Amino acid sequence: MVSQEKTDITIYQPQEIQKNVDEFTSQLTTYLKTLGLPTQGVLVDVGERKKVINNLPSVVEQLELTSRVNSIYISKFAAACSVGLFDAALNFLWNETIASLREKAARLDLEYFFSSVVTDQNRRSKLQSAEDLVKLEDWELVKGCLLTGILSDIGFKHLEYIRDMRNWASAAHPNQNQLSGLQVVTWLETCIKEVIGREPAISAIQIRVLLQNIRTKELTSTDVNPIITNIQMLPMDMVSSLLRTIFGMYTDPVMAAIAKNNIKLIAKAVWDEAPDERRYEVGLKYDIFAANADVTRLESAKEFLDIVGGMSYLPKGTLARELQEKIQNLLGAHYGMNNFYNEPSHAKILAELVPKTGVIPQAIRADYVKTLILCRMGNSYGISYAATDYYDELISRFQEAEIQQVARLLLDKEVASRLQYTVCAKRFLVICGELRKRATNTHTISALDRILKMKPEELSAADITNAFTSLLSSLTIY
Fold first, then answer.
1. How far apart are CA 424 and CA 458, in angstroms?
2. Are 283 and 235 contained in the same domain?
3. What are phi and psi of 201, to 5 degrees?
4. Position 333 pLDDT exceeds 90
5. Domain presence at residue 6
6. Residue 77's pLDDT is what?
7. Are residue 30 and residue 176 in the same domain, yes or no?
8. In this structure, are 290 and 335 located in the same domain?
9. Do 77 and 206 lie in a common domain?
């Protein structure tokens, strides 16, 4: 966490440092000219660099000295800013942030962390140790940190913005964007406060201890009562991650009997607190075990569903299983680099698989709707125009249940983060306007009308009224 006993930083002879910056710029410009290379638009204006140099001490001193001495990328960030390469500095800042998130994730329960963000069983089985954290895409790491309590909601929203800037306005992506000194140093302060100098939430530590006890101790019904009370107080995202984790542990063929017995004591409590979409996810995994003839895991999955009373969440038919893979592929392309180029092929495959009736298995409906809306909203830099027709076609097939799910997306943290961009919020309102014409349920219509009365900048606000939140939460899921 941010140190209460900060070590003051003294910048010796700041005028001399700034003088050296001026001299370096002049000499480098002359050198580039002798090589016949461009000199315009290469380095940020000296005045902007001075803003970073002047503000850097007060920002960096917010870090504990023990963290500061190991922050190699912050040193590179400072060096890049000094010479006028703000795009490179932003890349270094992102590297430091990702390194810090990996370090914090490694200190949590790794099974809990990996299970929170990776739902594909084959891929999940290859992620076991701290060294495997590098196999996660940056967006997956950030999302996993949100779901497990390493990142706060505000921290996640800030990092999503910085990640966008890193992808589109840094040396990681060809561009001619200019960044200001105050912008860059503010992003550094945000990363220090929300990531590098911040410890995980207490609830995340409690889950780590709980999972350790499940594996190593023999719990009794007396031990479980306070555990259940704590589970009931967890944020929804963390309950979802915990359900994924204990289901994965229970169906692990090599899991010790003592751990499985302990899971039996808390499974129903976790299941009861988890949202419907995560229960359907468990049912879908059961279906995947059956399709792959994974008899051992299938038997354990059935035991788990019997314990929690969840057999009604099993999917009907094979469409849900096939769609899940295609949805995950599209989402990965959307969050990845060069997403505007990579999305169309995945969107085309998904469009060919979805029935013309638009009827989607309940087991994957929430993820399907969320992925389509995220892709159709695009990001602050635009949308994948080659994929837009596919998105519009699929959204035009939405039935009442899918339309209700769109309204509920205002409660989703990833969607709320995307809505911080006015251009994305405007696209969301256009989508809601089109769906409003087809909605028939009075509660759905009421929710959409409420959304359409909001201004774009209000959609991601944290102060949505309790009454509206209750209305969205109570929408019937068919």
1. 12
2. yes
3. -60, 155
4. yes
5. no
6. 92
7. yes
8. no
9. no
Most confident of 19-23, 25-29, 71-75, 472-476: 71-75
Contact, 376 vs 431, CB < 8 A? yes
User: Which phi-psi region, left, alpha or beta, contains residue 255 (left: φ > 0; alpha: ψ -120 to 50)?
Assistant: beta
| 251 shares a domain with 156 | no
The closest alpha carbon to 384, from 420, 433, 331, belongs to: 331
Whether 346 has a pLDDT exceeding 80, the answer reads yes
Residue 6: left if φ>0, alpha if ψ -120 to 50, beta else—which one?
beta
Q: Across residues 180-202, what is the average pLDDT?
A: 90
* Domains held by the chain: number: 3
Rounded Cα distance, 156 and 42, in Å:
32
pTM of the model: 0.84
**Listed residue (318, 427, 422) closest to 372, CA to CA:** 427
DSSP state of 359: -
* Any domain includes 367: yes
Q: What is the mean pLDDT of residues 122-147?
A: 93
Burial of 124 (0-12, 13-18, 19+ CB in 10 A): middle
More confident residue, 163 or 432: 432
The total of other beta-carbon atoms located within 10 Å of residue 43's CB is 18
Residue for token pair 């209700």: 404
Report if residue 117 sits inside a domain: no
Q: Residue 343's Cα: distance from chain center in Å?
A: 18
Q: Is 134 domain-assigned?
A: no
pLDDT band at 396 (very low <50, low <70, confident <90, very high): very high
Q: Are 216 and 190 found together in one domain? A: no
CA 225 – CA 227 distance, rounded (Å): 5
Q: Hey, which residues does 379 pair with through a beta bridge?
A: 382
- Domain enclosing residue 426, as ranges: 325-473
pLDDT band at 222 (very low <50, low <70, confident <90, very high): confident
